[in-house]
Amino acid sequence: MRPTDTDVLLVIDVQNDFCPGGALAVPDGDAVVPAINRLAERFAHVVLTQDWHPAGHSSFASSHPGRAPFSSLAMPYGAQTLWPDHCVQGTDGAAFRPDLAVTRAELIVRKGFRPAIDSYSAFFENDRTTPTGLAGYLRERGLTRVVCVGLATDFCVRFSAEDARRLGFEVVLVEDACRGIDLDGSVAAAMAAMAGAGVTIAASGQEPT
């Protein structure tokens, strides 16, 4: 079955800094673009997310002297992985990949712009309670199934998929249209967690059914 009018393709953080040569490059991250572009042609509704940090964001290791990238720090909202500076507002690194087809996108959700809190999910900040507004948008549009693609499988894709399920949406993850960072087995853990939350795992050639 082809995508229906109540499906939305959620394209997560396909930005220069998450692709090879970027500040927080996901291995093989640019390989998701052809599959995503093919999928976007089939969907009536496409939403993009964009990591959009102010300089000096609290999730940057550089904001915490003596702390190394990829270490963890306790924040008021829980444990936070500290990242290299990335996707800083207005920089080329924060821009979408130039070969990503964006013209069909009906909405761009910018996240991570609050200096004191990171935001992996397209639906909530990392406190898991402050909403981005995406859920309300989808509901008002009558969209009921969220098809997740993009970067990175084990962080922003995972949190977005799990939150969509928690909010009552049907969710499909297109595995070959995602890539992960894979910190200490985090991709396998993310895939297991998403499946356990009721996310359907599919391939781009078969999605959705």
From TrEMBL:
GO molecular function, one term: nicotinamidase activity
Gene3D superfamilies the UniProt entry points to: Isochorismatase-like (3.40.50.850)
Keyword Transferase attached: no
Pfam families: Isochorismatase
EC number(s) reported in the record: 3.5.1.19
Pathway participation: Cofactor biosynthesis; nicotinate biosynthesis; nicotinate from nicotinamide: step 1/1
Domain of life according to the entry: Bacteria
Isochorismatase-like domain sequence ranges: 8-202
InterPro entries in the cross-refs: Isochorismatase-like_dom, Isochorismatase-like_sf, Isochorismatase_Nicotinamidase
Family indicated by similarity: Belongs to the isochorismatase family.
Listed name of the protein: nicotinamidase
Source species taxonomy: Bacteria, Pseudomonadati, Pseudomonadota, Alphaproteobacteria, Hyphomicrobiales
